[in-house]
Write a structure and sequence with these properties.
The chain has 16 helices and 22 strands. The protein is an alpha/beta fold and about 475 residues long. The protein binds nicotinamide-adenine-dinucleotide (NAD).
Length: about 475
């Protein structure tokens, strides 16, 4: 597939192969953009700014709704392409498309609600006699840089609110999975003037870096790893940056929990998308009294998962993004076992597949739970009581989301108040998000929030206009 810049398809001499992680076959190629192409995208996005700001909010909203309709019509086609490039089961790909539609719809609605407020200057010393109000103005050009695990929905979480508040956009999709995003941007381009949305493919370290440091790009909206996010924040200088980074989310299971509910939470939270989820359940902190029973039930439920061809609707566990990624997970698990952890089920790799793995006797200092393990692994850390559970939950550089399972409201409230995370769910695993909620982590999990209304807040600037009436 070509890039999309200024409404034109742009190819390149150097090409990157997009590999189907299930078959190892090349699905397609995309150009490896170099700096000149990145600059072309920046120029086109800047030229298109006035075309968008001149458009009424009514029209912007309608056009976004038109794209909703187009994506709905082609739901299955988009899902199949997503499964081919990422290796996620087709049913999960369909969910991602449905959420993408929802994210777009929320943005189309939000496009009509972008306004400021009147400000009583007379509440301040010397402010009498003014009529003052604020406006929410677009920042200009937004660069959207996104990861491989939910390439479409996470990219739409940036593009759609950006356009809703009349910014033009340059998208740098993930190198491993750019196809669904390019195809989607073509739908947007059918509705909006050329240059409103541009896609450049290539390496983050080259074109991503160029976008981050360019003075003609007004905002970086990044989702990806902490390592890349930190690099971006150092290089971006005074630029407005939103960083949605990795997670190491705890699930706290207290002795009075509904064990079956918690087990279901792990199945949905640790193994969804083969564990490649920022808000995946990555540390299961279980009170000693119920740990054996919990582990037994978790193993039984885990062994029901069906690993296989991601295109088969019976498959519930697909591949990781690459064989290399699966090897990294294998190595991390093996190191934990050498340090004393015990695999209860799973633990084997086959190409880009890694089995759904439950691993017990994990201790908080093992790499498996210190770093973000991006694979289908459910590590159990046994603790003694609520205080220790909260302490272990907070013993991490991350703070994206958390889940707590208990039937005691006082314990629930203590966890809700004391766990340092952007979201704490009670009796629900961390791996849950609606596309309108404020989403974004504490600590190294990021800076800023997404979730359409909140993304709009981060993609607009506030101007105050004051009329001196005296
Ligand atoms: P990554 O950081 O390797 O890459 C993300 C994007 O950044 C890619 O498009 C990449 O090409 C680009 N990039 C790489 N180097 C760059 C640079 N120097 N300058 C600018 N851009 C650069 O992440 P990944 O492996 O694709 O994704 C997995 C990570 O993303 C995990 O840590 C996961 O937790 C995180 N994630 C976070 C969220 C969230 O909302 N908090 C959601 C999904 C994934």
């Amino acid at each position: 597939m070509d890039m999309l810049i200024g409404g034109k398809h742009i190819s390149g001499e150097d090409l990157e192969e997009v590999i189907n992680p299930y078959t190892g076959e090349v699905i397609d190629t995309v150009p490896i953009a170099h700096l000149q192409t990145a600059q072309l995208a920046i120029d086109e996005a800047n030229n298109a700014k006035s075309k968008l700001t001149e458009m009424s909010a009514f029209k912007v909203s309608n056009k976004l709704f038109n794209v909703v309709g187009k994506l709905e019509e082609r739901r299955e086609e988009f899902a199949e392409l997503l499964t081919l490039e990422v290796g996620k089961p087709i049913n999960e790909a369909l969910v991602e498309i449905d959420r993408s539609i929802e994210t777009l719809r929320l943005s189309a609605e939000e496009a009509k609600r972008i306004y400021g407020e009147s400000v009583p200057l007379d509440a301040g010393l010397n402010g009498k006699g003014f009529f003052a109000f604020t406006q929410k103005l677009p920042l200009g050009v937004v660069a959207a840089i996104t990861p491989f695990n939910y390439p479409l929905n996470l990219t739409i979480h940036k593009i759609a609110p950006a356009i809703a508040c009349k910014n033009t956009v340059i998208v740098k999709p993930p190198t491993e999975a750019p196809l669904t995003v390019i195809k989607f941007c073509e739908l947007l381009n059918e509705e909006f003037p050329d240059g409103v949305v541009n896609v450049i493919t290539g390496y983050g370290s080259e074109v991503g870096d160029y976008l981050v440091t360019s003075p003609e790009v007004n905002k970086i909206s990044f989702t990806g790893s902490v390592t890349t996010g930190m690099m971006i924040s150092q290089k971006a200088g005074m630029k407005n940056v939103t960083l949605e980074l990795g997670g190491n989310d705890p699930m706290v299971v207290l002795k009075d929990a509904d064990i079956d509910k918690a087990v279901k939470g792990v199945i949905n939270g640790a193994f969804l998308n083969a564990g490649q989820v920022c808000m995946g359940v990555k540390r299961i902190i279980v009170e000693d009294e119920i740990a054996d029973e919990f582990a037994d039930r978790l193993v039984a439920a885990t062994e029901k998962l069906v690993m296989g061809n991601p295109m088969d609707s019976k498959t519930t566990l697909g591949t990781l993004i690459s064989e290399n990624a699966a090897r990294q997970v294998e190595e991390t698990v093996n190191n934990a076992v050498e340090a004393g952890a015990k695999i209860l089920t799973g633990g084997n790799r086959n190409g880009a597949f890694y089995e759904a793995t439950v691993i017990d006797n994990v201790t908080p200092e093992m790499d498996l739970v210190v770093r973000e393990t991006f694979g289908p692994v459910a590590p159990i850390i046994r603790v003694n009581g609520l205080d220790e559970a909260i302490e272990v939950a907070n013993d991490t550089e991350y703070g994206l989301q958390a889940g707590v399972f208990t039937s005691d409201y006082a314990s629930a409230m203590r966890c809700a108040q004391e766990i340092e995370a952007g979201t704490v769910f009670i009796n629900k695993q961390s791996t849950f998000r609606t596309d309108n909620m404020p989403f974004g982590g504490f600590k190294n999990s990021g800076v800023g929030k997404e979730g359409i209304k909140y993304a709009v807040e981060e993609m607009t600037k506030t101007k105050l206009i004051g009329l001196n009436l005296r």
